[in-house]
Amino acid sequence: MRLNKFIAESGFASRRKADEFISQGRVTVNNEIVMNLGVVIDPDKDIVKIDGSKIKTEIKAYFLLNKPSGIVSTTNDEKGRVAVTDLIKTKFKIYPVGRLDYNTTGVLLLTNDGDFTNLMLHPSNKIEREYLVLLDKDLREEDRIVLTKHVQLEGKNSKFNSITYLKEKNYRSMRVVTVEGRNHFVKNMFSLLGYTVKKLKRIRFGPFTVDNIPEGKYMILNRSDIEKFIKSMNKNNGRRNFGKSKQSE
Ligand code: URA
């Protein structure tokens, strides 16, 4: 197995991060520093260490949480606030797949699988995120068009794929779809045009929804759900639903 894949599968880091560790000379195989990204190891025999700590391959674990408001999406918060990982009972060292803001609710995946995280977050995979948004005031039609065509945000061409209203003649509540995963993306997009996001819920990330999961609860996804999704990605852009018909914990 390639060294970077082994590190990613151990849950220690994403494949990209693993490459960084290798290039920085922080990885040893059988106590020899290895800086060649293509190196192949035998996971049953070779001893891999990062910064002197031994890496083991781990069982992969996947959780789909309906994140409540007032919880941070980091694994530990310097202010000691409740973190999303505090809501999940597991012996695995898991971390969130991307972030939701403190007050944002809804779909949050957590795992120890670096490859899966990379796949979900890599911009080239264009995985859709769908949000319910409540604004402080009515969205003007010209602004809706601008936000779905093109704006410059943080020096990058940015847009929402779609903005659709939830009710007739209510222009404050809407459903927004985007493939962007930058932090605070939805709030920053609206803020550019003078709107404040009052409420934000992510209702879908790729095929994952929390339709049957109460806030603060989660369900365990199994490896076969994840594999089905990975296979379906090429076929139908990952739109199958995995959160719909299952029991939450
Ligand atoms: N965009 C935001 O502004 N906040 C989130 O939590 C997620 C997307």
Structure description:
By secondary structure, the chain is α+β, with helices and mostly antiparallel strands. The protein has 3 domains: 52 residues, Structural Genomics Hypothetical 15.5 Kd Protein In mrcA-pckA Intergenic Region, Chain A (Roll); 104 residues, Pseudouridine synthase I, catalytic domain, N-terminal subdomain (Alpha-Beta Plaits); 78 residues, Pseudouridine synthase, CATH 3.30.2350. It has 6 helices and 15 strands. Strands 5, 6, 7, 8, 11, 12, 13, 14 and 15 form a 9-stranded mixed sheet that branches. The chain is elongated. The C terminus is likely disordered. Uracil (URA) binds next to helix 5. The site of uracil has 8 residues, from helix 5.
The helix-and-strand class reads alpha+beta
For the biggest sheet, the summary is: 9 strands, mixed
What is the straight-line distance between the termini?
Answer: 36 Å
Helix content: 10-25%
| Element-level helix/strand string | HHEEEEEEEHEHEEEEHEEEH
Overall CATH architecture of the largest domain: 2-Layer Sandwich
Mean of residue pLDDT values: 89
Fourth-level CATH superfamily of the largest domain: Pseudouridine synthase I, catalytic domain, N-terminal subdomain
CATH class of the largest domain: Alpha Beta
Low-confidence stretches: 237-241, 244-249
Helix tally equals 6
